[in-house]
Design a protein that fits this description.
Blueprint: E1 4-8, H1 13-24, E2 30-33, H2 36-45, E3 51-53, H3 60-63, E4 67-72, H4 77-90, E5 94-97, H5 102-119, E6 122-124, H6 129-141, E7 148-155, H7 164-172, E8 178-181, E9 184-187, E10 196-199, E11 206-211, H8 216-223, E12 226-234, H9 235-242, H10 264-280, E13 288-289, H11 292-295, H12 298-308
Parallel strand pairs: 1-2, 1-4, 2-3, 4-5, 5-6, 6-13, 7-12
Antiparallel strand pairs: 8-9, 10-11, 11-12
């Protein structure tokens, strides 16, 4: 397996954090994207890194030669993930992305599990803040093979400065959101739970939350037995997200706390980088299209993230 890592969407807000994190870990990723001009900022920050420019839909199969791991940071993932993940599998490369889009994660599980197994590679979508965090925490908290009757995933954000990519994804992602109810994945709009309050640790404290499920629902359903899973998001950041005047975030710090950080995009970087290094050194499960906690040992990933990420704290009642 080649050790070369390619980051597609390297010029985006999340992509730049991921490139910085991989470099911090001693890797020299290929920075890639659709536009030579947009890659210039990344190239100026890391002038020695190799670069490749290609369209994920048209040229991915020819552009992945010699690559061992593909990290896709270019949303909307409904548009980029199918072609790029399939091209990675055909090239014999592992694939990771940071999708929060339930439909894109579901489609990769459905379409690429058998091809990935045959190729001997792992396809792991949703290896980011939305997706991996809840999947890893729940898997680590449950005894091996145990089922959970009810799970609440509560995300407390004080603000949300959405990137242009997040806004584009929101407009593109019109698929009905799903939750787990009665042990089955069902549409949220069939019986959405009423808003409620949630007690978060300081500095957020008591906050109103509403049902907003992300890709973690699909990841959890992939490998865990759960009777009911409810996903909650604090309402304050939703107002920011829905306000077209809310500014995009500034990439001021690549290191943020995993559970209490100020930038959900920067928080994604150490998570996906942890997946990259584990794929490169063979610390992953059998090949196939996998949830984060299927691909990697959940407790080990969390422990290593805590050890390597400033301000990250982990508490598990297990």
């Amino acid at each position: 397996m080649p050790s070369l890592v390619l980051v597609y969407g390297a010029s985006g807000h999340t992509g730049r954090f991921v490139v910085d994190e991989l470099v911090r870990r001693g890797l020299a990723p290929v920075v890639a994207g659709r536009s030579v001009e947009r890659l210039q900022d990344v190239v100026r920050a890391h002038p020695t890194l190799p670069r490749r420019v290609f369209d994920a839909d048209l040229d991915a199969a020819q552009a992945l030669g010699g690559v061992g791991v593909v990290v896709n940071c270019a949303g909307p993932f409904l548009d980029t993930a199918p072609a790029l993940a399939r091209a990675a599998v055909q090239a014999g490369a592992h694939y990771l992305d940071v999708s929060a889009e339930q439909a894109s994660v579901r489609d990769l599980y459905r379409d690429l599990d058998a091809p990935a197994r045959e190729a001997g590679v792992a396809v792991v979508p949703a290896m980011g803040f939305y997706g991996a965090v809840a999947d890893l925490l729940l898997t680590a908290a449950l005894p091996d093979g145990a089922a959970a009757e009810e799970v609440d995933v509560a995300i407390g954000l004080d603000r949300w400065w959405p990137t242009p990519g997040t806004r584009t994804t929101g407009a593109r992602n019109t698929a009905p959101r799903v939750v787990i109810r009665g042990g089955e994945v069902v549409r949220l709009d069939e019986a959405p739970p009423a808003p409620r309050t949630w007690e978060f640790p300081p500095p957020i404290g008591t906050a109103e939350v509403v049902a907003v499920p992300f890709s973690d629902v699909v990841a959890v359903a992939r490998h865990l037995t759960v009777g009911e899973l409810r996903s909650w998001l604090s309402t304050a950041p939703l107002a920011d997200l829905r306000d077209p005047a809310t500014p995009a975030p500034e990439a001021t710090d690549e290191r943020r706390a995993l559970l209490t950080g100020r930038d959900i995009y920067a928080v994604t970087a150490p998570i996906v980088a942890e997946g990259v290094v584990r794929l490169l050194d063979g610390r992953h499960a059998v090949p196939g299209a996998l949830a984060p906690a299927q691909a990697f040992d959940a407790r080990s990933v969390l422990d290593d993230l805590v050890a390597g990420t400033p301000d990250l704290a982990l508490t598990l009642d297990a």
